[in-house]
Design goal:
This protein is α+β, with helices and mostly antiparallel strands. Helices cover 25% and strands 31% of the residues. The chain contains 7 helices and 24 strands. Strands 3, 4, 6, 7 and 8 form a 5-stranded antiparallel beta sheet that branches. Strands 11, 12, 14, 15 and 16 form a 5-stranded antiparallel beta sheet that branches. Strands 19, 20, 22, 23 and 24 form a 5-stranded antiparallel beta sheet that branches. β9 (116-123) and β10 (126-132) form a beta hairpin. The longest helix is centred in the C-terminal third of the chain and has 39 residues, at 320-358.
Length: 443
């Protein structure tokens, strides 16, 4: 058998001090005064405190404490009894309780100089300390912090408090101490030191800050876009995309609420949970206004943010209507083109007729154009006389002129023949007969 596992952990040592309404306690590890020790790693010890009022109807309270700690929330002028136990949680070992010690509390001095109601507000890893001032005269403040693991040591840590940069000798009642949170695995303690103009000082109560537990998750950023059949939701992690602590340590998920924004109050609000920062919603109704809001939450730390601001977007209309509009437009365009073509063709025909009538490309024969000493611009122009009568007169006159011309030629030819003496008697008799016949025809 191994002595380490069968050995009993002895009781720790205790020192108590009652001051200003609180009890200061200092615990020494088991075997602290022994030369030979079974447990040499004192930092592994955890201490449990059991405290109760020294009365007949006592109520026992249990809490974990550090080797050097302060017990507050006690009634003044009351005797309290307590005992402490050392444990090794990793080895599942519990030690013996210390002897019972009793001490009487004092009244707490209500010093108006001290900062009151010290609290921490943390959102998206931005930490602010707030307090109240009851002092009516001039007062300045120093905000101090202590790295948490120092309280686990058995040494005196009272001289290891440090001032928060930017929160020294200030008159405001708030302080941004985000700069000191350099790790999320540890924890911190903060307090406010108030100082009057007479160099009097007073320390406030301490507040514990465990970064990932104290911090609250803010609402995420949301942008929405829409395509033909999908609603796209783009989510920005709380604190912005550059805030790696929020994104990595909290293992965030997102709860999406979306609904149709209509006058019907009975429209169902639908919910969707995703791990990614991009979500989609399908089965959308055309020409409908959809609204979206998103909440970030962490199952590991049991934390959730407020919902983001509502973002709304309208889905496009049904595809049938654009097709109808397109078809109507194409049909109207074709009809306009056809009408325009017919109109152009008709105007061209009218233009051709007018040009042909008033501006002919060819002139009439000379004998028609100059007949009777009258000029005619077109053979198709109508006159006051009937076209048939004009044609008959023109034909008769032309025939008469032709005949007269032929007759003159004939007489001239006859005269020439007589002078030459070349014609025979047969020809002379024939010519006479022809002349007589021609004269008869003319008459």
């Amino acid at each position: 058998m191994i002595p380490y596992f069968i050995a009993q952990i002895g009781p720790p040592g205790i020192e108590l001090q009652s001051t200003n309404g609180v009890i200061k306690i200092k615990v020494s590890p088991p075997e602290a005064n022994q030369v030979r020790k079974m447990w040499i790693a004192h930092l592994r010890f955890k201490y449990n405190l059991v405290i109760w009022e020294n009365s007949s109807n006592a109520e026992f309270r249990s809490k974990s404490i550090f080797p050097t700690d302060i017990i507050d929330d006690l009634a003044p002028d009351t005797t309290y009894c307590l005992k402490v136990q050392a444990t090794l949680p990793l080895d599942l070992q519990e030690g013996l309780f210390s002897p019972i010690h009793c001490v009487k509390t004092t009244r707490k001095v209500n010093d108006l100089l001290c900062a009151k109601n010290v609290s921490v507000l943390a959102l998206n890893m931005k930490f602010h300390l707030h307090w109240n001032n009851q002092y009516k005269q001039y007062v300045s403040y120093n905000v101090q912090y202590l790295i948490g693991y120092l309280k686990k040591l058995h040494d005196d840590y009272s001289v290891k408090w440090l001032n928060v940069p930017g929160c020294e000798n200030i008159t405001d009642t708030q302080c941004n101490f985000s700069s000191i949170i350099t790790t999320t695995s540890g924890f911190y303690y903060l307090r406010v030191q108030a100082m009057s103009e007479y160099n009097k000082s007073c320390f406030s109560n301490e507040v514990k800050v465990d970064p990932l537990i104290t911090n609250e998750i803010g609402p995420p950023g949301v942008k929405v876009d829409i395509s033909d059949v999908l609603l796209h939701i783009q989510i920005s992690p709380p604190g912005g995309s550059e805030n790696e602590v929020m994104r990595d340590h909290y293992d965030l998920s997102y709860r999406i609420l979306y609904w149709k924004n209509s006058s019907n109050n009975e429209e169902e609000i639908k919910m969707k949970e995703i791990k990614q920062t991009i979500g989609t919603v399908s089965d959308l109704t055309p020409s409908t206004l959809y609204c979206v809001k998103v909440q970030a939450f962490s199952e590991v730390y049991n934390k959730s943010s407020h919902y983001s601001k509502e973002e709304c977007i309208k889905t496009p209309g049904d595809k049938i209507l654009p097709l109808i509009i397109l078809a109507t437009f194409v049909t109207a365009l074709i009809a306009v083109c056809l009408v325009a073509t017919l109109l152009v063709f008709a105007l061209y025909q009218v233009y051709s007729k007018i040009k042909y009538v008033f501006f002919p490309s060819c002139q009439p024969p000379f004998n028609i154009e100059g007949f009777g000493g009258q000029l005619s611009s077109s053979p198709y122009l109508s006159t006051t006389e009937e076209p048939i009568e004009n044609c008959s007169i023109i034909e008769t006159l032309i025939t008469e002129v032709v005949y007269q011309t032929d007759f003159k030629d004939y007489k001239h030819s006859k005269q020439s023949s007589r002078d030459s003496g070349n014609y025979s008697n047969d020809d002379t008799s024939g010519s006479k007969v022809s002349e007589e016949m021609l004269e008869k025809e003319i008459v």
